[in-house]
């Protein structure tokens, strides 16, 4: 196996991470090379001259509800071919963690998502992680679109209204077409009308569906339990949609 730093023909070759830092993603097959002269480690390198620009990001904010509102466990983002751009565990507020049951629930969620012990210890608050994500995305100068499922909850506020946003949940609602109706309140209904359910209802749109149903519909399976795995699953489903 050849050593990258020893061969001029690999001068333009970079790893996925190095390309991502420049707003690029690999195109074509990579090659495994030694990363140093001591031949102690290898990495997959790609020809940077053939790389393409990252224009689209898929984002997921993994959270659950509690008595204190939404609690974010992690935030992840991938590009349009599935390269992980961001993957961070989020530590809840200290006052929330003071409750032993809350702390245990968060630890259970972090472990379920396969975060390591060191990642759990070094986890930072949502505001810090969101800012870090925003800074990372801002460096990708060609990104124009952010895609998620239920963007109001799954794209952090730090990124909202700065890019074109695509909500796969809304798109999928129009695929399933499960109608929703609301009572027409322009009528004066009697108690007897309500009792007999004899009230006028108007079509107000299609019902939003759960992400799990969307993934099943497009035969997409999660590769793991981290936020970036959900982001990648959304990418697969979105790219299978007939838009």
SSE topology sketch:
Elements: E1 13-14, H1 16-21, E2 24-25, E3 31-34, E4 42-47, E5 52-53, E6 56-66, E7 69-79, E8 84-91, H2 94-97, H3 100-112, H4 117-122, E9 124-125, H5 126-138, E10 145-148, H6 151-154, E11 164-167, H7 168-176, E12 179-183, H8 191-195, E13 201-206, H9 211-217, H10 227-240
Parallel strand pairs: 6-10, 8-9, 10-11
Antiparallel strand pairs: 1-4, 2-5, 3-4, 6-7, 7-8, 12-13
Mean pLDDT: 89
Report the total helices.
Answer: 10
Proportion of beta-strand residues: 25-35%
Oligomer: single chain
Strand order of the largest sheet: 9-8-7-6-10-11
Structural class based on helices, strands and sheet pairing = alpha/beta
- Gyration radius from CA atoms, angstroms: 23 Å
What ranges have pLDDT less than 50 throughout 5 or more consecutive residues?
A: none
Order of helices and strands: EHEEEEEEEHHHEHEHEHEHEHH
Largest sheet: 6 strands, mixed
| Helix proportion | 25-40%
What does the overall shape look like? globular
Distance between the termini: 45 Å
Strand tally is: 13
């Amino acid at each position: 196996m050849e050593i990258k730093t020893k061969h001029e023909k690999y001068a333009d070759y970079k790893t996925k991470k190095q390309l991502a830092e420049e707003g690029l993603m690999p195109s074509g097959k990579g090659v495994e090379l030694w990363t140093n002269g001591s031949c102690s480690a290898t990495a997959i390198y790609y020809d940077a001259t053939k790389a393409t620009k990252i224009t689209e990001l898929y984002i997921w904010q993994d959270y659950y509800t509690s008595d204190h509102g939404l609690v974010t466990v992690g935030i992840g983002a991938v590009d349009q071919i599935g390269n992980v751009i961001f993957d961070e565990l989020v530590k809840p507020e200290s006052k929330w963690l003071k409750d032993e049951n809350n702390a245990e629930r968060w630890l259970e969620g972090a472990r379920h998502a396969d975060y390591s012990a060191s990642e759990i210890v070094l986890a930072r608050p949502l505001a810090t992680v969101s800012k870090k994500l925003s800074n990372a995305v801002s460096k990708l100068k060609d990104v124009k679109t952010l895609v998620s499922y239920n963007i109001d909850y799954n794209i952090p506020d730090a990124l909202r209204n700065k890019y074109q946003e695509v909500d796969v949940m809304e798109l999928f609602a129009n695929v399933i077409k499960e109608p929703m109706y609301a009572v027409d309140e322009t009528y004066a209904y009697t108690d007897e009308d309500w009792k007999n359910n004899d009230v006028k209802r108007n079509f107000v749109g299609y019902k939003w569906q759960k992400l799990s149903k969307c993934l099943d519909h497009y035969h997409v399976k999660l590769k793991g339990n981290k936020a970036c795995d959900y982001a990648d699953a959304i990418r697969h489903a979105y790219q299978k949609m007939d838009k």
